[in-house]
């Protein structure tokens, strides 16, 4: 497949309370493996031990480039209820470069397929969200076709999270069917590591193998080619011109 990873779009650092490297270590790793961008997407404040709101408010003061790597200052917001409510205020979400929204069992008890679908549909409609995070998690099975079509309608990106295949039950099968729908409806995806330690930065092999297996169109993998991802970054941040 014609693919060159240019950005890891989902990474954590010490501030999450359950990750073990600094942001600078992650940036150095990104540089060492030739990435052009790193999305720093710390867990939102609804997760225990996660940083508080001011952390995300203040993050805009970090530099845009660190030693040649573009830093996208983001968050992995928690979906807190099945109406799609997120755990950061709108004005803070709007100021971030890259917003992933995810369900986590630490924050929201799994419920019915109808509930999980309703939550995702609300997230898909939220203009402050960029990416639906690790949606292959079988704790939150949902109507995949309905949600993928909503992503198409509202310009959302679906994440194929490589780490999920190892830790989230049922992820591979779900990611496969979700990716097949993305292929069918031409919905863009990103592949990500969800790194919680520096050695995982850029590890997206599981996601790539799955996408190759199903003949996924490489042009729909947004972080698989420099100019393609740069265009996304420019649209979302207005910077990096
Ligand atoms: Zn997550
Ligand atoms: Zn994460």
TrEMBL record:
EC number: 3.1.3.-
GO molecular function: phosphoric ester hydrolase activity; zinc ion binding
Keywords associated with the record: Hydrolase
Transmembrane segments: none
GO annotations of cellular component type: cytosol
Protein name per its UniProtKB record: Putative phosphatase YcdX
Name of the gene encoding the protein in the UniProt record: ycdX
InterPro entries in UniProt: PHP_phosphatase, Pol/histidinol_Pase-like
């Amino acid at each position: 497949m014609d693919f060159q990873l240019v950005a890891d779009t989902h990474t954590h650092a010490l501030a999450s309370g359950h990750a073990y490297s600094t942001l600078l270590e992650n940036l150095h790793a990104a540089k060492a493996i030739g990435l052009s961008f790193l999305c720093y997407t710390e867990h939102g404040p609804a997760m225990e031990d996660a940083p508080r709101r001011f952390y995300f408010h203040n993050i805009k003061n970090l530099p845009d480039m660190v030693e040649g790597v573009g830093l996208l200052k983001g968050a992995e917001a928690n979906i807190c209820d099945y109406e799609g409510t997120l755990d950061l205020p709108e004005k803070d979400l709007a100021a971030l470069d890259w917003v992933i929204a995810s369900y986590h069992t630490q924050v929201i008890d799994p419920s019915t397929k109808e509930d999980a679908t309703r939550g995702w549909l609300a997230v898909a409609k939220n203009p402050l969200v960029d990416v639906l995070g690790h949606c292959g998690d079988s704790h939150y099975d949902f109507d995949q076709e309905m949600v993928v079509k909503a992503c198409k309608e509202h310009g959302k990106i679906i994440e194929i999270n490589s780490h999920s295949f190892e830790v989230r039950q049922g992820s591979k099968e779900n990611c496969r069917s979700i990716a097949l729908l993305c292929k069918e409806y031409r919905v863009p995806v990103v592949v990500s590591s969800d790194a919680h330690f520096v050695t995982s930065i850029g590890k997206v092999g599981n996601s790539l193998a799955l996408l190759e297996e199903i003949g996924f169109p490489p042009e729909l993998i947004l972080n698989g080619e420099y100019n393609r991802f740069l265009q996304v970054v420019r649209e979302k941040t207005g910077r990096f011109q």
